[in-house]
Task: structure prediction
Amino acid sequence: MFKKVLIANRGVVAVRVARTLRKMGIAWVAVYSEADKDLPYVQEADEAYAIGPAPARESYLNVDKLLDVIKASGCDAVHPGYGFLSEDPVFAEKVTKAGATFIGPSPKHISAMGHKVRAREFMAQAGIPVLPASLAIPEGQTDYTDHLQSIRLPMLVKAAAGGGGIGMQRVYDEKALIGAIDKTRQLSARAFGDSTVYLERYIEEPRHIEFQMVGDQHGNVRNIFERDCSIQRRHQKVVEESPAPELDRDECAEMADLLVNALKEWKYDSLGTVEMLLDRDGDYYFLETNTRLQVEHGVTEAVTGLDLVELQIRISAGETLDRILPSSVEQTGHAVELRIYAEDPVRFFPSVGTLTRFDVPDVDGVYTETHLVAGAAVTPNYDPMLALVIAKGTDRAEALQRAQAALDGFAIEGVKTNIPFLTKLLGSEVFREVRHHTTLAEELSKSVA
Result:
């Protein structure tokens, strides 16, 4: 097992990974920018290294600085968390060349599964249903007649690289297509260094269901149930829950089996997620894969009792699934995760400032993960997530009740937060009656006081 692990990330996920490393008795190394030097987890690390000024490209995305920390600290593994470099195959390769283990999939899987066009092609060949879509759109193309006939409006213009919905554009009008493609190219190039885009049919009001998968380095792959991640703003998730409510359980299990077989064929070798859209007719369609720990992994942990970060670590150390997982994993109860953001609760624009007050809730059945304390600054340099709230109950109603009690228990001053929006959501009949979909947040935000 590893003796010392560098957490090549910051914020909530750094705190989360450190929690498991402490439990496993593994020393951990933090890195920090000038903006983060006073955060509690940096002070609590076994070792901590400054890696540059606040802008992410000069610190957390500075691969050379991170490689210097690997050498200086003598760590034998690197956990990338989520975001930043977690899905960068070049970084994974450089970590290996530096003599440390990258805690995640092999670079070939990150490269293949992280590219949406290539992942779609593989899944289609494996018998997984996919939406009508184009291949990569060549630079300078202006005639889209064939695509308009085969894909049909409405459609999405999507970046082939990266995740988080960055650059995604909905198109309802043929005249808007070229402008949307140009905009997505620009945003994708800026965010991922790759301007490749493609077109995909857009489903009105789908649910977003994702399957938690795990593979090892010995050819084994298993599914650890599913999550409903339909509540999103700007194509980014805000609320997640497990088990996904009101699904046909047999159809869900059949899809999970298909995905396990596909990833076995791919010889997938770590934790990963396959994201699917579920339309109004109950049909599943492949969306994308994520070759990393998901922000919402905590709801799966809550209903299974597993530690998914520990699974990642032990798999990367060469252990087999039959050794680290029980033969049958069971779900108990229901769990809901709320992402607490520093943002305007109506327009969802980030809010920056100093947290003059930051009190987190103390509610039975609720766990809150945060990296912040009163006096900390919320800057425009990073994702504005303040905390993750994971509420578990014996059933969905109790989980939602506890989640609302947690929202009521926050006292945050100095920045705006999305708590009013989340309160509106949890109280809405559409959400409580499981009639929600991926554009519900846009509709509800207009009525937030």
